[in-house]
C-alpha cells in the first residue's frame, strides 16, 4: 500500500512541475520577433526568385523553339 501512495505522490509532483514549467513560458523579445520577420522575408524572397527562374526557363524554351522554326 505504501508503494502505491508513493507512486501517486510522484505522479502528482511531476504533474505540478510540468504544469508550472509550461505556465512560465517566456515571452518573445524584440530580437526574436525581428528574427522571425527576417525568416519570413527570406522565405518570401526565395519564393519570388523561384518564380522568376521558372519564368526565365519558360521564356528560354520558347525562344529555343522559335529559333528552330
Mind explaining what this structure looks like?
- This protein is mainly α and 69 residues long.
- It has one domain.
- It has two helices and no strands.
- The chain is elongated and about 90 Å long.
* Total number of domains: 1
Q: Give the overall shape.
A: elongated
Tally the beta strands.
Answer: 0
How far is the first residue's CA from the last residue's CA? 92 Å
Radius of gyration: 29 Å
The sequence of SSEs as H and E is HH
Which regions contain 5 or more consecutive residues with pLDDT less than 50?
none
Mean pLDDT: 82
SS-based structural class? mainly alpha
Q: Main sheet, how many strands, which sense, barrel? A: none
| Number of helices, counting only DSSP H or I runs of 4 residues or more | 2
Please bin the fraction of helical residues.
over 70%
What proportion strand? under 5%
Considering the chains and any ligands shown, give keywords for the structure:
69 residues; mainly alpha
